[in-house]
Write a sequence for this structure.
């Protein structure tokens, strides 16, 4: 019998709202310190510069306000666990959009200020279960905020890698990012033969095969939060992190390389 589809994890509305606002605030403060020469540094995102990455973070965050301004959709069109798989199809459109926005708005401080104000206003008066229309489909506002937490954490890491700024990660934003990507793995490879541990945020079971019932599982993968985020989003490779001892994998089924990345 195939394993039952697990119930989607719920996220506390107040915590996820505070998390995205806090993480965006961290990035806003850091971007405001960047001199012009650092804005032209390369990133690990193709040929995007730091300026284009910073622009993408701001307009991605501001998309919450744009979505809430549109008429409410009639029904949900995308489930939260399916959202990561929709991102690749929009990559070219996002690239074009970001380049145009970076060319049109050289004032990053103003761009970030408007985004913070607009999203803050929306979150003050909009219930979390309101459906909002996004490029990837209609979903609940609070679910959209979970996706923003993922993008903020992922791109904070991209920004840190490019600049060495050391922008901090809000604990709740990092937790939401890790948990969603772990749950996507469990949905992509349902089963109970491998236990994936990302302390202190998530433990999931995945991959078809014998299910353990007690004691230490025969197949265990463990890594830290940021290494997991980088693996799940294609920022690093399984074998690279295994060789660096950033990932431990025991058991004959514990090789997850064929399942990664989960989004890009």
């Amino acid at each position: 019998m195939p394993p039952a589809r697990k119930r989607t994890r719920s996220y506390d509305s107040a915590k996820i709202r505070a998390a995205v606002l806090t993480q965006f605030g961290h990035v806003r403060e850091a971007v405001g310190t960047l001199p012009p020469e650092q804005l032209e540094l390369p990133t690990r995102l193709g040929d995007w510069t730091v300026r284009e990455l910073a622009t993408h973070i701001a307009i991605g965050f501001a998309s919450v306000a744009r979505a809430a301004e549109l008429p409410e959709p009639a029904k949900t069109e995308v489930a939260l666990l399916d959202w990561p798989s929709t991102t690749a199809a929009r990559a070219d459109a996002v690239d074009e959009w970001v380049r145009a926005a970076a060319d049109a708005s050289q004032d990053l401080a103003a761009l970030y200020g408007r985004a913070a104000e607009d999203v803050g206003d929306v979150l003050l008066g909009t219930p979390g279960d309101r459906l909002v229309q996004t490029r990837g489909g209609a979903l609940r506002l609070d679910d959209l905020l979970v996706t923003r937490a993922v993008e903020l954490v992922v791109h904070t890491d991209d920004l840190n890698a490019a600049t060495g700024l050391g922008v901090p990660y809000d604990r709740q934003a990092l937790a939401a990012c890790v948990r969603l990507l772990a749950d996507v793995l469990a949905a992509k490879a349902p089963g109970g033969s491998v236990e994936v541990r990302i302390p202190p945020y998530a433990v999931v079971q995945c991959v078809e095969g014998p299910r353990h019932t007690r004691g230490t599982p025969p197949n265990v993968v463990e890594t830290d939060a940021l290494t997991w985020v980088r693996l799940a989003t294609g920022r690093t490779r399984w074998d690279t992190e295994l060789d660096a001892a950033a990932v431990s994998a025991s058991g004959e089924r514990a090789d997850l390389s064929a399942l990664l990345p989960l989004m890009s």
